[in-house]
Amino acid sequence: MNLFDVYPLYPVEPVRGCGSYVYDVEGQEYLDLYGGHAVISIGHAHPHYVEAISKQVAALGFYSNSVENSLQREFAERLGKACGYEDYRLFLCNSGAEANENAIKLASFQSGKEKVLAFSRAFHGRTSGAVAATDNPKIVSPFNRTKNVEFVALNDLEAVEAKLAEGGFCAVLIEGIQGVAGIQCPTDEFLRGLREVTTRYGVTLILDEIQSGYGRTGKFFAHQWAGIRPDMITVAKGIANGFPMGGVLIGPQFEAWYGMLGTTFGGNHLACAAGLAVLDVIENEKLIENANEVGEYLLAELRKMPRLKEVRGRGLMIGIEIEGSAAELRRRLLFEKHIFTGGAGATTVRLLPALGVGRKEADRFLAAFAELINE
Ligand SMILES: Cc1ncc(COP(=O)(O)O)c(C=O)c1O
């Protein structure tokens, strides 16, 4: 059987990783500033993580959500403390799309309304509701197309208010920082306005922190820079450093009833062990502080480079808008300089490294990048 051919691949295969580096079969080292698409939060093959998962799988890898699993309670308690949402409740699932799907469903159940307001160029995943709220018609099948989702421009509060005034909306869904769109930041002022207007209209505010959360921007969640508290927050990617895991943080105003949401794999023993190990390392190694410090350094140094069109982002979520083809530059960074980066659109290079990436790695990237850009 062949693979269903939906991914354009680089001819390179990492087979081993350590911290911010990966290695191919020949032992060639690559600096990883892509983090497997913002997933590698604590670094590749962190010994504490490896030990925690190994011990758990040897004891019990999986049971089901019909019996007690104290690891889930421990994880929820630890996550609540780490991010400052101790009064929220956690629903665990397996991916980012699923987290958004469940958040939308919950907002709709609670309000009895069916419409979602999302933003131009948003990406929220590929399952039914999540892809409908994704502003990319190419990946929305006729089955997923719906009049229940509308889009307005990012940072346009008047447009949001005009839509909410029409009625019928259960939720506004917004990324902490738009990732797939090429690192587009909602302003702090816009997020505060969004909080005010959604509260006034009784509409649930859902912050998709799947890419921007878990310490990446130098705070646990990107929206915390604006000092707001959304009604729900969705997480995935960095939550378990590569073990598939997602979650919805749910405000105290939402009522749960048996059978309302559910999943076979969500919150399984192995995922919780991985998630707990990630929280240990984030705390013990002060990775959020590091993301802030190294991120600010990278942003400042990149902004000094004369030939770039724009440098956007916060912490270790960085979009570099270049003059020429981002795909070509990324290919050269990978094969000539052995550095993995991410892309977004035709002209943006995206940096999403592990949160423990150091100044040494930042300097190596800056030198390589400057050399290729200035050729
Ligand atoms: C902001 C955002 N939301 C949702 C998703 C979907 O996550 P997953 O691929 O785990 O379903 C992504 C993935 O890139 C994302 O960046």
What does this protein structure show overall?
Helix content is 36%, strand content 18%. α2 (47-59) packs antiparallel against α8 (269-284) and α9 (287-303) packs parallel to α11. It has two domains: 14-46 and 285-373, Aspartate Aminotransferase, domain 1 (Alpha-Beta Complex), CATH 3.90.1150.10; 48-284, Type I PLP-dependent aspartate aminotransferase-like (Major domain) (Aspartate Aminotransferase, domain 2), CATH 3.40.640. β14 and β15 (348-351) form a beta hairpin. It has eleven helices and 15 strands. The protein has helices spanning 35-38, 47-59, 70-83, 96-111, 128-132, 157-166, 188-201, 269-284, 287-303, 326-335, 359-373; strands spanning 14-18, 21-24, 29-32, 89-93, 115-119, 149-152, 169-175, 204-208, 232-235, 246-250, 310-314, 317-321, 339-340, 342-344, 348-351. The protein is of the alpha/beta class. The protein binds pyridoxal-5'-phosphate (PLP). Pyridoxal-5'-phosphate binds at residues 95-97, 100, 123-125, 175, 179-180, 208, 210-211, 236.
